[in-house]
Every structure is written in C-alpha cells, then in structure tokens.
Amino acid sequence: MRVTFAQTGMPLSMGLFFTLLVSGLNAKVPAAMLKGLVANGVPASSAAVLSHVPPLGYVFAAFLGYNPLKTLLPPAVLSHLTTAQAANLTSRAFFPQLIGPAFVGSLSIILGFAVVMSLIAAVASAFRGGKYVHVDEESKAQRHIARGGRHHGQAASSAAPATGSVAPAAASGATPMAGASGAALSSAVPTEPQPVPGK
C-alpha cells in the first residue's frame, strides 16, 4: 500500500506543481512580455500576439537555456529592429529575465502550498493513534496452537518422575510393581509342582 501511494503521489505532485506554475505564469507573464517587447522596438500588435503564447512551451525552453524569441519573432520584425535591439531580444539572458519575476511569484505559491500540505500531513500523522499491526485469523490460530503446545509440554514435564528414582529400578531389572504388592504377586505365581510324600 505504501508503494502504491508513493507511485501515485509522485505524478500527482508533479502535475499539481506545473498546474500552479502555469496558472501563475498566465496571470503575470503576458503583461511583462508585452512591456518588454515594446520597450525593445517590437510593434505593439506583434508584441500582443507573442504575449499570449501558452507558457508551458517557453518554460521548458527557459529550463533548457533556449530563447524562444529567436523563432517566435517573425523575420520581418527582426529586420526592422536595430542590431542592438535584435541581439538583446535573441540573447540567452533576455527571456529568463523577462519571465523571472512571474516565475518567482509562481514558485512562491507552490512552496507555500507545499508547506501547508506538509503541516496538514504532520497533524494527521500526530492524531492517527498508536501503531496498528494487522493480524489475520490464520496467524491467530497458529499462535494459539503453539501456545497450547508449550503449556502441554510444561505440564507433561512436571508430571514425569524424577530421573534419579527411575534409574536404580531400571538397572536392577525390577518391574514398576514393588513393595508389598510386588511381594504378594511374586508369592502368588505358581512354581514347579513338588512331589507329594507317600506317593
């Protein structure tokens, strides 16, 4: 069960992480991108179109160190920009700096959510009670049989005669019947017939 929860929780946490990240980027990146592109000479119409690009694609591009504006900006727009503006827009540092504040805000939301979930898990773990060990009926029956066997063995060992009192009798060849009853039985055993006098 623990492995099942671990394997289910990992993709669930990753999906939740990227959901919160994309939600935060959708809320803040369009305005920041529009402002940054217009400030570097991109026409407002082209900048408005680029600012509404889905964030999931360019986030992975930023993770890989790739500036997606190299392919997102049309060649006609780049040709109308100065060399310095085009170099700045297509550099590796421009795009990460453009989405950096929005990414930090989204990451703060994610970490805050993780802290809240960790506290909830800690409280739930503290109130879960004592340690529970599941025991099925077959295990109970086996333990009961083993306990009964131990008690029976102890009773049999306590009822057995002492070894010192048995050994002499066995060594002398005497039967368990001894004492007065043994003597009476030995006298009652018939012996060889004796001759009768006068016959």
Q: Briefly, what is this?
A:
The chain has 199 residues and is mostly helical. It has helices spanning 2-39, 44-51, 55-63, 69-72, 75-79, 83-89, 94-126, 137-159, 163-172, 179-188. It starts with a helix and ends in an 11-residue tail after the last helix.
Describe this structure in words.
With 199 residues, the chain is mainly α. The protein has a domain at 29-102. The chain has helices at residues 2-39, 44-51, 55-63, 69-72, 75-79, 83-89, 94-126, 137-159, 163-172, 179-188. Helix 1 runs antiparallel to helix 2. The longest helix is centred in the N-terminal third of the chain and has 38 residues, at 2-39. Residues 162-189 have low confidence and may be disordered.
Largest sheet: none
So how many helices?
10
The fraction of residues in strands falls at under 5%
One letter per element, helices H and strands E, the order comes to: HHHHHHHHHH
Q: Regions with pLDDT < 50 over 5+ consecutive residues?
A: 162-189
Helix content: over 70%
- Structural class of the helices, strands and pairings? mainly alpha
- Kindly report the average pLDDT value: 74
Total beta strands: 0
Computed over alpha carbons, the radius of gyration is 48 Å
* Amino- and carboxy-terminal Cα gap: 103 Å
Shape, please? rod-shaped
